[in-house]
Amino acid sequence: MRSRLTPLLLAVLIALAASAPADAQRYPLAPRVNAGESMHPFFEGWYELEDGRKVLSYGYFNRNLGDNPTYIPRGEDNFIEPAEFDGMQPDWFPIRRERGVFVVTVPADWPIDREVIWSFRSAGELYSVPGSFRTDAMQLTTGPAAMGSHRPYLRMDEDGEEGYGIIDPVWGEPRSARVGEPLEITIWARDNMVEDIARDEFVAVRATMWVHQGPSMGSIVAEQPEGAEPEAPRRGGNRDDPGPIANRVEIPVESDGAATFNVTFDEPGDYVLRVMVDNHNAVDSSQGNQCCWTNGYVEVDVRP
Q1: Is beta strand 170-171 parallel, antiparallel or unpaired with respect to 293-303?
Q2: pLDDT tens digits, one per residue of 34-84
Q3: Where are any strands of DSSP class E within the chain?
Q4: pLDDT, averaged across the chain
């Protein structure tokens, strides 16, 4: 009897393992891999505006280690419910944990028990995260960090309006480009410090640009300022940071605050670029404590 049941049991176990999600088949504590790992949406918390509206913040965790962002286009595999809030989520997911990638603003009369749910399909499974303001413990502050760090100032156009933070992102004037021809985009940013707390000096601001939405991730290269030193490790100690990457530039404190990116698209279509400026070089600043960075976006119409 034992000799007949053992092969049967083994066959059942093999079938169960084969039908499990890809990352569920790996042993605990197994090394992460470059591709094929699942990604997960995150609800970061919520902010309250003076007029009673609530702002819900979302991010994600991409567990893969490869160099290329993961692509999940908006649609049946990447959507927000209720549908009235669908559309601002990313198509492209750079490798690492990203916080506060986009926000959803609900009206002041939005029921406290009603959720805004972001879902996307990854590694064959549909993952969802609800966002709501029913829990005070998830409320985020718009104030400065412990030693005076704050969200950096950002302008997406030279004569554009300056803003900061993620509650009310800064939008640049729409652009147009052609496939294969580099598009130069310059932004302006500067450190934002509350001097009467503890920090008594400004720090360099870093600017990073990604393709947020669009059919191709393209190629983005940041122009390093003349005479700039190689990027040093962040003093803020954010372990989510992968280190120096091509689409990031550090803006020296003494500069005019300009950072330039050359973006080349390899497919036509409608794109949205996201730029994040941060002062995570400061000791009290990191994405881990939901401070201190600012989001900016710009639409690009790419033609053949």
Answers
A1: parallel
A2: 556 789 999 999 999 999 999 999 999 988 766 668 899 999 999 999 999
A3: 39-48, 54-62, 70-71, 78-81, 92-93, 96-106, 116-122, 125-131, 153-155, 163-164, 170-171, 175-178, 183-190, 205-213, 219-223, 248-251, 258-264, 269-278, 293-303
A4: 85
Instruction: Return the higher-pLDDT residue of 177 and 244.
Output: 177
Copy the structure tokens of residue 73: 């286009």
Beta-sheet pairing, 54-62 with 163-164: unpaired
> pTM score > 0.90 for this model?
no
Distance CA 175, CA 214 (A): 14
Q: What is the pLDDT of residues 223-235, one digit of tens each?
A: 877 655 555 444 3
Q: Which residues neighbour 169 within 8 Å (Cβ) at sequence distance 6 or greater? A: 103, 163, 294, 295, 296, 297
Tell me whether the omega of the peptide bond preceding residue 291 falls within 30 degrees of 0, making it cis.
Answer: no
pLDDT in tens, 143-173: 999 999 999 999 999 999 999 999 999 999 9
Residue type, 68: N
Give percent helix, percent strand, percent coil of the chain, each to the nearest 5: 10, 40, 50
The answer to whether the beta carbons of residues 73 and 220 sit under 8 Å apart is no
